[in-house]
Design brief:
Length: about 850
């Protein structure tokens, strides 16, 4: 049952840290293209030529200053009548003009000659730089043409943007040699944008961001890595849920389909006898038959089945008039938004299978067969897309055929949705891929990591304690107010939420907690000003951590689990084995299990094991919100006061327990047994012992109020847990060999003056000079306001610098709103990317750990 460290078998204890253990299963997120690929966009010769211009300009200025100094000395030493010529020379030199040396003293003539020579040298360097920049543009253009023609690259872009392949990539390949125009530059930036994403971003998407499964083991080998013969060992293509919903909605438009559709009642309504009460207190009064019909609208039974059930309850067959009346009531309530009368297809990786099951239940033979044939047609097109893997031409045709089939069968105007939105599932299908790789990290690695990682995890425990305490106080105040107003300690959850949400989402209260977090970290780390590298020992910090982050346990049950992202910076696997590496802490996802998503669950070889882990880690029942597939802001405010993106099956909750319950929040169908579903309209808030609880009116289960609102709290504070506040400059901070803070800079867009230079050559040279003055490393990630994801910049790449300048200019031209740009060191960088494939190429990667609080 348990390992030698007395924790459940799925966990491995952090050596020397009894209060923390890690899941043995680890998600490996990595790029699908080798890290070296994007280096083809760099041009060292061009960068050196730009630096030579800058150095020559420095020399020119130094020589000018020497001229000024010599002239001032000569003026001071000269008689009054000999000074006029010196003053004229000084005036011209101040204006950066070369004076005529005639009649000047020898020292001034010599200084002027040196200045003239430096100016001539600078002019020559400019000529050389102009030629180098033009040659670099052509060299990079050739690399881009080869990239655009690479079959794997084209296949990757096809999955994301077929239009970009047909226009941007194809047009760039046809481009004639020579000076690029604005359209060429736009296409070049497009190709570079995709290449940097596929080469240096640890995404989880398709074959260009395949999921890997790694393990933490008890062995004494630091690391074991065995790449498979190919990069991938599995590729699967799935429908986005919205695509099958659109097909089902079109089928449902057929009047003959109406009796076979299942009505589903809004979870915001609750029943009182034969009346149904809406959130605002309005009542829908119905007769006994109608009320019985509505009570059966759980989304699992068709209208035909509901009518039969009502007839059985009434003890006699319904007359045609009664059936028509009841169906009319359903139609009327649907029009009012009280219920959804449609094919009920929950979010899942296989929505087409659910639709098939619903169609098979239709008793009208011709209608059933006709509908199944429609479904079969689009499934065949999906299967053709899957078979086209590895063949961009075939994939392009298959995706085009799928789009055309979808448009014909659904009558829709577009085969995409939510253009430009993050995690929106924009296209009809997506691909999930698993990396062919065995990776194990042993006890010695964990022993090195544990003392420093436990410092961060102890701070996360403290954070959840205080986050929960702050919210409990808000909830107590709200409950007291509503109890006084209603005269009852049992308060409708919907009413409670309407009052509580504006206070819960208060930015001021969250910032107060974050400032306290930073203050405590500040006392622990005591980062000295003016340093770029801060190296600390966990043994020295431990007494301070115990004092500043003392907490008896997690703030609520699910806060037992945190998910730190961990990167390893090393030149090779062999270097890791001999201890030549740095561990780098990425984002710490507080009170979140990042492996609890279908994207990982679906690719794990034994997904049922992951669900058993949750059974052990969270012994009490959890309340899991079932979010709608699409939720506008008005609906979000009416529900939990938060914004939710368009849903995709990839991001859906995967780890489910038989003991858990699910919060029903919308008309969309849930993928859970009816007995575990709690409609939000049926829930109340009331005191129990020394806490507030949320329970259904029948009292069959209850949850401490923080368990109910935890997701809202986390959405509001998702980026708050950091070690240091972001400032104009933040040094790299390392505890033992764990980097807990990367070096970073925040710069207002207005101060990045090179972005507005007249030509790309001037912008590149200006960027090199600007970066050099600030001591920036060659490789950076840049985060601009309004963009969800950072992008990569190589300061030796004219094209990537041009993309950076383009992004800055957009902010400068906007002239309002946030304008601060965050630049972070790339760590691990290219030389420290070690994940191999069978051919010896190296890839960027990160490990998604799951830490479980044992306190």
């Amino acid at each position: 049952m348990t390992s030698r460290t007395n924790v459940p078998d799925h966990l491995i204890s952090l050596p020397g840290e009894e209060r923390w253990a890690l899941w043995r299963v680890v998600a490996l997120r990595g790029a699908g293209f080798p890290v070296e690929g994007v280096l083809r966009l760099a041009d060292a010769a061009c960068a050196a030529a730009a630096d030579a211009v800058a150095a020559a300009d420095v020399d020119v200025e130094a020589k000018r200053q020497e001229v000024l100094a010599v002239l001032r000395r000569e003026i001071a030493a000269s008689a009054e009548d000999a000074r006029e010529i010196l003053y004229r020379a000084l005036k011209k030199a101040k204006r950066h003009q070369l004076p005529d040396p005639s009649g000047l003293p020898a020292a001034a003539v010599e200084a002027l000659a040196a200045w003239r020579g430096a100016r001539d040298q600078a002019a020559a360097e400019r000529v050389r730089y102009a030629a180098e920049f033009e040659a670099a543009e052509e060299r990079v253009a050739e690399a881009l043409r080869e990239t655009a023609g690479d079959r794997r690259f084209r296949e990757a872009v096809l999955w994301q943007n077929r239009h970009a392949v047909q226009t941007g990539l194809a047009a760039f390949q046809r481009r004639a040699p020579g000076r690029p125009d604005s359209r060429d530059r736009g296409h070049a930036r497009l190709i570079a944008s995709y290449l940097q994403r596929y080469s240096v971003k640890n995404d989880t998407i398709g074959f260009f961001g395949p999921i890997g499964v790694a393990h933490l083991v008890d062995g004494e080998e630091v690391i074991t890595v065995r790449p498979g013969a190919e990069l991938l060992d599995r590729r699967q293509v799935f429908f986005e849920g919205w695509a099958i919903d659109a097909l089902a909605d079109r089928m449902a438009e057929d009047p003959a389909m109406r009796p076979w559709l299942a009505p589903r009642l809004s979870p915001f309504l609750r029943r009182e006898g034969n009346a149904w009460v809406a959130p605002g207190g309005q009542k829908i009064e119905l007769g006994p038959l109608s009320s019985a019909l509505l009570a059966g609208c759980d989304g699992t039974r068709s209208a035909r089945q509901l009518l039969r059930s009502v007839a059985e309850t009434a003890g006699s067959a319904l007359t045609p008039d009664q059936e028509a009346t009841l169906l009319g009531i359903l139609a009327d309530l649907e029009a009012k938004g009280v219920l959804r009368w449609a094919f009920q297809i929950p979010m899942s990786h296989h929505p087409e299978q659910t639709l098939r099951e619903l169609l098979l239940a239709i008793e009208d033979g011709p209608l059933r067969e006709r509908s199944l044939a429609t479904l079969d047609e689009i499934v065949r097109q999906r299967d053709a897309v899957e078979r086209a893997a590895g063949d961009p031409e075939a994939l392009d045709r298959a995706l085009a055929d799928l789009d055309a089939t979808f448009l014909r069968l659904t009558g829709r105007a577009s085969a995409t949705r939510a253009e430009g939105k993050l995690y929106a599932g924009r296209t009809l299908v997506f691909e999930e891929c698993r990396r062919d790789l065995e990776l194990q990290l042993g006890r010695p690695f964990l022993a090195d990591l544990a003392p420093a990682l436990s410092v961060v995890l102890d701070a996360a425990r403290w954070f959840t304690q205080h986050l929960a305490a702050d919210h409990r106080e808000v909830f107590r105040q709200v409950h007291a107010e509503l109890s006084a107003r209603t005269g009852s300690t049992t308060v409708s959850l919907l009413a409670f939420t309407q009052v509580a949400m504006p206070r819960v989402v208060s930015r001021a209260s969250h910032e107060k907690l974050q400032q306290e977090l930073f203050a405590r970290w500040g006392r622990v780390l005591a980062v000295p000003p003016g340093t770029r590298r801060v190296q600390l020992r966990s043994a020295d910090l431990r007494p301070l951590v115990d004092r500043e982050f003392a907490a008896p346990g997690p703030g609520w049950q699910k806060a037992r689990i945190h998910s730190p992202d961990l990167l390893i910076a090393a030149p090779s696997v062999e270097a890791i084995r001999r201890g030549d590496y740095l561990a780098v802490l990425g984002e710490t996802h507080v009170a979140v299990n990042t492996l609890d998503r279908n994207a990982f669950f679906s690719q794990h070889p034994h997904p049922e094991q992951l669900s058993s882990f949750i059974e052990s880690d969270l012994p009490e029942p959890s309340l899991i919100p079932v979010f709608p597939k699409v939720w506008n802001q008005e609906e979000a405010n009416a529900g939990l006061g938060v914004w939710a993106p368009a849903a995709s099956p990839r991001m859906d909750v995967a780890l489910r327990s038989a003991k858990d319950f699910y919060l029903d929040l919308s008309l969309d169908p849930p993928r859970v047994p009816a007995g575990q579903l709690l409609p939000i309209g049926d829930l109340v808030v009331e005191p129990a012992a020394d806490q507030l609880v949320v329970r259904p009116r029948d009292g069959r289960v209850s949850f401490e109020i923080i368990d109910f609102y935890q997701l809202v709290m986390l959405i509001q504070t998702v980026s708050m847990f950091r070690v240091l506040p972001e400032g104009s400059y933040t040094p790299r901070v390392t505890i033992d060999r764990l980097v807990v803070v990367r070096e970073s800079w925040i710069v207002p867009a207005a101060e990045i003056d090179f972005a507005a230079a007249a030509s790309a050559a001037e912008r590149f040279a200006g960027a090199r000079l600007w970066a050099g003055k600030r001591g920036l490393p060659r490789f950076l990630f840049v985060k601009t306001p309004g963009e969800a994801k950072p992008f990569y910049v190589d300061l030796q790449s004219p094209l990537l610098v041009e993309s950076f300048a383009h992004a800055v200019r957009k902010i400068q031209e906007r002239g309002e709103g946030p304008s601060e740009i965050l630049l972070s060191e790339m760590l691990p960088d290219h030389d420290a990317s070690w994940l191999p494939d069978a051919a010896g190429h190296r890839y960027t990667c990160e490990l998604r750990l799951v830490a479980v609080d044992q306190a």
